[in-house]
Amino acid sequence: MVTETLRASSVSVARIARFTAVMFKPQYLLFGVLWVLAAEGTAARLSGVRWEPGAATVVRVVVVVLVLLFLRMVDEQKDLDYDRVYHPDRPLVTGAVTATDLRVAMLMLGVVVVVLSGTAGVGSAIAIAAVLAYGLGLWAAETVWPALRRSVLGNLAVTYPVQLVLAAYVIASAVDTGQVGAAWSTAWVAVLMAGSFLQFEFARKISCRPRPGEMYYSNPLGAAGAVGVSMGFVALTTVAVLAIWTPWRFDGVGALFGWAAVVLAVVPVGAAVVWLRSRHDGYPPVPAAVYVLTVYLAVIGAALATPTG
Predict the structure, then answer these.
(1) Which structural domain range is residue 70 located in?
(2) Is the pLDDT of residue 208 over 50?
């Protein structure tokens, strides 16, 4: 009996490992790391604290990456019916992983991230528990109200705020560890992170031809409309960078990083102009992804190089 249990457990672990390799690729890990550093560095700047990332920052990075994996597992299950039609190669659809495997892994991840967050303070543990609860709540909401699954804009309206709750966790935890000051101005972090991410979110789901039944933003908005919304979020990101970092006030490396975060807008804007003229079927998501990651890198550099005040 014990041998069979151990064998079953090892098989389940192997399936989860394969699921992670397929559905949580290195770029997601990179995004999680840069996202935390950019959010924490920006919050420190806004609260007038000299940013000094340390061991607590590493813990927050690990927690956020594990939470992103947790949310990926939630998505795999709540989107199962959609994936059976449009993504038949997904692990849960093919049977490469089971729902039980995912739920056991989610339980373990949940315990780990709450315990890790608790090392910073009770507030941090509560904040990360709220993120997990929000993700599970979305799953329940889509089960009760199937219309949320059929409207790409409605779905975005209820799913994106989980990232805002995650940003609140990063800030609250950094306040607990003294790396960020408690200040209402840190709300600007949400503006910067929302603008940079949402321009990519729209860019990856745009096509110049109708895609009935698929969750594409170009279906309700049209191709040009969806591109316009994506560019609007690029503009929002640029405004946030200028408002937060005021690069004209500084010299040297700090100013260089601040202005770089502004100039990088030419990457998604240029890609949009080229695509609208060519009208190839699918909108290219790579420039939008490059923009997100490089803006975060520039913001991290600015946070490290720019004095407070």
Answers:
(1) 1-182
(2) yes
Taking the CB of residue 166, how many other CB atoms lie within 10 A of it?
A: 26
Same domain as 78, residue 201: no
Residue 192 burial (10 A CB sphere; 0-12, 13-18, 19+): buried
Q: How far is CA 201 from the centre of its chain?
A: 10
Residue 2: pLDDT band (50, 70, 90) is very low
- Give the separation between CA 152 and CA 301, rounded to whole angstroms: 35
For the packed helices 55-78 and 122-144, what is the interaxial angle rounded to 10 degrees? 10
The counts of H helices and E strands in the chain are 16, 0
Please count the structural domains in the chain.
Answer: 2
The answer on 124 and 64 residing in a single domain is yes
Computed from CA positions of residues 201, 204, 205, 206, in that sequence, does the dihedral angle turn out positive or negative? Answer: positive
Domain boundary residue, one of 182, 212, 229: 182
Within 10 A of 164 (CB to CB), how many other CB atoms are there? 16
Tokens standing for 295? Answer: 């803006």
Distance CA 200, CA 209 (A): 19
Handedness of CA 155, 31, 283, 191 (dihedral sign): positive
Residue 54, CA atoms < 13 Å, CB-side half-sphere: 11
pLDDT digits (tens, 9 = 90+) for 36-92: 999 999 999 999 999 999 999 999 999 999 999 999 999 999 988 888 988 889 999
**Per-residue exposure over 137-162, b if at least 16 CB sit within 10 Å of its own CB, e if not:** ebeeebeeeeebbeebeebbebbeeb
CA 106 to chain centre: 18
The model's pTM: 0.92
Q: Six-digit token pair at 68? A: 């992103």
**Pair 97, 18: CB distance under 8 Å:** yes
Residue pair 88/82 in contact (Cβ under 8 Å)? The answer is no
Q: Are residues 244 and 288 in the same domain?
A: yes
Cβ-based neighbours of 131, under 8 Å, separated by 6 or more: 67, 162, 165, 166, 169
